[in-house]
Design brief:
about 200 residues; alpha+beta; 2 helices; rod-shaped
Length: about 200
């Protein structure tokens, strides 16, 4: 290779390197950050809800509340009281009818509580409060509520026994998560109903 050829070759190589360097400088060699993986979100558990159910029934005693022991015979379904009167026995017995259309109130907290929900009894006197968060509740049935009074008339509570002659019958309940509390019944003895069947006359000799 002649000196002339070398002189021609090296300038061309130098120009090529300079062009490559310029091209590299023109390129954006910075690297974008890798995308951050989104964390997997664990859904919060939905708290299990509970329910309260029961029945309101006519506790039958075929005597008026004012009837004294003697000479009226003791009637099935009745029990004697300390004041020499009778009332229904507070036991839900076969054939005793449910009381429909009664309004019950459910309140949060100890009685009387903060109003939470209400419902009415069905044709058989049954009721249910569903989808209840875990909490303490007060279940109340007021005999003097205008709609209830039209159904109940005069009488007294036989269940719960603590209500007796009070207008309101209440129960305090604590519902645990997912708990179903059944059997929260109310018994009502309507004064004078059913009408007692007269005892057959004893033939005289």
């Amino acid at each position: 290779m002649t000196d002339t050829s070398r002189r021609r070759m090296f300038p061309m190589a130098g120009m090529a390197l300079a062009s490559l360097a310029a091209a590299l400088l023109a390129c954006d060699l910075s690297f974008a950050p890798l995308p951050t993986a989104m964390p997997t979100l664990t859904p919060l558990p939905i708290p299990a809800t509970g329910d309260i159910s029961g029945r309101v029934w006519h506790d039958l005693c075929a005597l008026a509340l004012s009837t004294s022991y003697s000479p009226v015979p003791f009637s099935p379904g009745c029990m004697p009281l300390d004041d020499s009167t009778f009332q229904a026995n507070g036991l839900e017995e076969p054939g005793e009818p449910g009381l429909a259309g009664l309004r019950l109130l459910l309140a949060a907290g100890a009685c009387p509580g903060t109003p939470f929900e209400e419902t009415t009894t069905d044709a058989d006197g049954a009721f249910r409060f569903g989808s209840l968060p875990s909490d303490r509740y007060c279940l109340t049935l007021d005999a003097r509520d205008p709609g209830n009074e039209a159904v109940l008339g005069q009488g007294r509570w036989t269940l719960p026994g603590s209500a007796s002659l009070h207008a309101q019958a209440s129960r305090e309940l604590t519902v645990a998560p997912g708990e179903s509390i059944a059997g929260q019944d109310f018994g009502w003895d309507i004064d004078g109903l059913p009408i007692p069947t007269p005892a057959p006359a004893t033939p005289t000799s």
